[in-house]
Amino acid sequence: MSNVFAFVETRGTDVRKVGLEAVTAARMLADKLGGGEVHALLLGPPGIAAKASQIGQYGADVIIVVEHAGLANYSPEVATATVADRMKSGGYRAAIFSTSAQGRDLAPRVAARLGVSIVTDVLSFEIEGDSLVVRHPMNIGKVIATIAIAAKPAVIAMRPNVIAPAQNAKAGRVENAQPAIDPASARVKVIETRQGGGGKLDLAEAPVVIAGGRGLKAAENFKMVEDLAAAFGNAAVGATRAVTDDGWRPHSDQIGQTGRLVSPQLYIAVGISGAVQHLAGMRTSNTIVAVNRDKDAPIFKVADYGIVGDVFEVIPALTEAVREAKKHH
Amino acid sequence: MKIAVCVKRVPDMDVRFRIGADNISVDQGGLKFDINDFDAWAVEAALQLKDKNAGSEVTVISLGPDVVQETIRKALSMGADRGIQIKADKVPFDGLAIAKALSAELKTGGYDLILFGKMSPDSSNGVVGPMAAELLGLPCVTAISSLEIANGKGTAKRELEGAQEIVEFPLPAVLTVDEGLNAARLPSLKGIMAAKKKPLQIKPALLAEPQITVRKLELPAERKAGRIVGEGAAAVPELVRLLQTEAKVL
Ligand SMILES: Cc1cc2nc3c(=O)[nH]c(=O)nc-3n(C[C@H](O)[C@H](O)[C@H](O)COP(=O)(O)OP(=O)(O)OC[C@H]3O[C@@H](n4cnc5c(N)ncnc54)[C@H](O)[C@@H]3O)c2cc1C
Ligand SMILES: Nc1ncnc2c1ncn2[C@@H]1O[C@H](COP(=O)(O)O)[C@@H](O)[C@H]1O
């Protein structure tokens, strides 16, 4: 019983980056368990099967493809029933999900259906004796807990961006399966998925996050932040609650305790004071840069590099310099 | 409508936590406690539905030691009708154990709607609501930021990464509440007085053996002290140099 299950998150016919991270994590865990198989489940509308070979590249031995016309939108009940059924028959030692909006919805339901506990937002894992031992931030990241999971299967949801998707090609044998319940019979129905601004990088997936705060003074000044993001080319734009409360940016852009968790390679805080609730969402970023005109702003305590100055002067200059730097690469 | 709201008493996060001598709990000294924000928004959502639907009743449920009665009273002073304490010496970390104990009570209530917060900041786990929904066999929508209920049916919005879902569901149902749904009302003086007379039942918790145990708590590694690169636009070239050569992110 050393096989590991991975849930591959999709949206429409796209595999999300967190889905590849889950497969990579499952591969790492199966290897720690002495070389068990990774079984990855891919659920979605017609067209999703074409993504199966990609999942094999990331280390899945078996890819269970559940393709159905009724799955154009995420269906919590179909996903729960299908995953739980597969986990019951598969006899897995552990199951890996993602700590994303979809993963947070699905993983606890599956665990409850199997009668086992779950830990979400997992930072790292080890096998110790008979337990899977994980690290999990508590108290909005101000305390880190080491937690032993005795339950079998051990169900965990990984924090996005802590495991880089790694190619580790395996046989990638494809098994086609049916949804465990008819999507038409689900009680809860997602009738629409509205994409916010096509093709933009997601906050949790972007290697660079540029976040703006009240120091930007008005919604239209976010143009400056977007220009800087465009200069990087691989950046997403986030915001503080002060900004989302004022309606300058949608709530989904909010980073912090009650918003999104991000841990990119580079985080640039533009006109952000650095309240604890904001830090809770970004303090695990690799490199933090802050631009603030107040040299005593708390954000400078967590910033690797700070510039004391007016964002209206510094950000356009930085944008220009980043554009130049990218040109010479 | 009969509505239940599960509320948790949580510490204020705006402090430096200390780890207790046992290494597996947070030192409670000097902490301030209040209702979880997400749960306060859930109470507010229930009260708004009660205002719209004459004859509705809002029940507030909290699992924990006697101090959780304060949290229940807070919700009663906002306008909820009655409270139930599911009495346990300690609140375990194991969300399944909590969900089982809460759903044992919830299944006897005949509720049309059962509301949870999306997450409690102390556990930072966000699992009790959907787990309870599964145990109850009820339809469930998590992390909602808008809600409409009419004719025994509901419509809610969920925020995803860079997108939104519009979700329809039948009643009875379980919902978990995200930020943005509403702003919680403050208890009025009259509400606080009235709350003292509202019924608060105490029942023992049926807590299952935990399957997950906290082995150790630690404070996260402090970030290495950073540096101020300089002032104003003049500091930009040096910042860019550091991002290229030291941090290697550009
Ligand atoms: C329960 C709870 C949950 C919360 N959750 C979150 C959350 O998830 N995310 C979040 O972000 N917040 C959250 N908050 C709010 C948080 O406490 C702060 O209020 C918020 O983060 C402040 O946003 P800000 O930094 O944009 O604004 P401010 O604190 O007003 O800071 C603006 C900064 O801009 C600087 N500035 C102004 N003008 C300029 C200029 N021209 N050039 C350079 N710098 C300038 C100022 O010096 C200041 O430091 C929460 C609060 C509570 C109580
Ligand atoms: N001890 C408790 N008593 C009542 N409700 C709780 C308790 N613990 C968690 N909850 C509910 O479950 C939600 C999610 O909590 P958690 O899974 O700990 O993040 C909270 O917002 C509450 O609505």
Topology of helices and strands:
The complex is a heterodimer of chains A (329) and B (250).
Chain A: E1 4-8, E2 10-11, E3 14-15, H1 17-32, E4 38-44, H2 52-57, E5 62-67, H3 76-90, E6 94-98, H4 101-114, E7 118-122, E8 124-128, E9 131-138, E10 143-149, E11 154-158, E12 173-177, E13 189-195, E14 208-212, H5 222-232, E15 235-239, H6 241-245, E16 266-270, H7 276-279, E17 287-292, H8 299-302, E18 305-308, H9 311-327
Parallel strand pairs in A: 1-4, 1-6, 4-5, 5-12, 6-11, 7-11, 14-15, 14-16, 16-17, 17-18
Antiparallel strand pairs in A: 2-3, 8-9, 9-10
Helix pairs in contact in A: 3-4, 5-9
Chain B: E1 2-6, E2 9-11, E3 33-35, H1 37-52, E4 57-64, H2 68-78, E5 82-87, H3 95-106, E6 113-117, H4 128-136, E7 140-150, E8 153-160, E9 163-170, E10 173-177, H5 189-196, E11 200-204, E12 212-218, E13 227-231, H6 236-245
Helix pairs in contact in B: 2-5, 3-4
The structure holds flavin-adenine dinucleotide and adenosine monophosphate.
State the main characteristics.
heterodimer; A: 329 residues; alpha/beta; 7-stranded parallel beta sheet; 5-stranded parallel beta sheet; 18 strands; 29% strand; globular; B: 250 residues; Rossmann fold; 9-stranded mixed beta sheet; two-stranded antiparallel sheet; 6 helices; 13 strands; 32% strand; binds flavin-adenine dinucleotide; binds adenosine monophosphate
